[in-house]
Predict the structure.
Amino acid sequence: MDAERPTLQRLIGRFTESFAGLGGTAPPLMAEAWAVLVHETMSGRGRQYHTVDHVFDISEGASPLATLSILFHDTVYYQADGGLLPQLETRVGDAVIEEDGAVKLAPLDPEGDPLRSMVAGLFGFESGVTLSPYAGLNEFLSALLAAREIGDHLPRSTVAQVAACIEATIPFRPVGADGVGPLQRLHCRLAGVNTAYGLGLDDAAMEQCVVQAADVANRDVGNFASTDPTVFLDNTWKLLPETNNALRGQRLYTVTDYRLAIEKMAGFLGFLDPGVVFLGFAGQPEAGVLERMTAQAGENIALGVHYLRAKLLAARVVEALALHTGGDAPIALFMGDLPEPGRPATKRLEDYLPTSSVEPAPSADLTVLSLLETGRTLRSGFDLKTSPLAAFLYRQLGDEGVQAHLETAKSMDDAKAWLDSLPEALVGAVAKASAEVAVSRRAGLLALA
């Protein structure tokens, strides 16, 4: 089985097979070098979701063009990697200029560097434009890396199609005011590049390229269509450390660090339109399939928002307790240590919470409550799989109560005043439980109990 082979061997196999499917040959040592490059760039400490496993997951059963595109599509990840890694700086660093914290596209030179100009044309980028890591920076540099690495081994027309497929993975783009969607724009730019660079693609080939680009894009966000909400939440939790430095590889992040990470993700999902998650072009995927994927994305997003808001309220309560009793501090001070394999378990805040036998509040979503109580599937390095404190609060407050108290928190700067606005029994129970763990804050916490 492919999954039983070593990682580099699997990557070499993907390169070799995709090249063969495209009518080319990947020289063994080049396939090895590309495999090492992909493995190195996607194994950074800041990555938990955008790893080599993601490449294997979404390239399974893909076409040769899609597979080759997927291999390169996440090699550059500015936010998680802290900029360009050294092995990427030497390959694509000349394409951008960093000024005052912004990343701009270096002047294009169509005659001296036609590959870079061609890739920029496919993305619609012009010299000097500011590139956002949330709107194409990572994808552009990943596509340029692919073009430069494979440019001497495949026809220019194929290289352009690989870059086009990577462009399509810029996520969550709405239809413009002119009624034109991201893939329609990509098709127009591909046609322009085809003419400008003499690629020789006919109309059918360009249409098929964008159809495959849609497939790559949809595979990339495929977890949004999972019918198992734990799969969606597991992947969401992998993204949190990638976009929040404080949660990466350290156990002593503060209560506020954690609250901000949850708040940011809850806000993002709360504003995400399910209609922009999955893409279609020229009838592919079929309308019914696209509708089902979009509907499932809507369900997962809604459930994720309720789950995250429950987690956010719990974080807000602990943060308010911390601020009122002495200031922000490591979350472990109030919650206790995270379990570690091979180490005896220690007492945590939830071990001191009263056992709740009350019926769930009328507005509580039983699926959300179950996920909070029974947990996500995968272990996280910065959080429990279960959410006992959030479950304790959510069971008694429901969605309506959670949302109402989160809204109140936005308008109150004083931690004690906000705690006073919550049900007294709930605050008292959490404060009393926390006092058993945060011994240095015990007196202040018991005063609230």
About this structure: The chain has two domains: 2-220, 225-446. The chain has 20 helices and two strands. Residues 2-220 form one domain. The two ends are 57 Å apart (CA to CA).
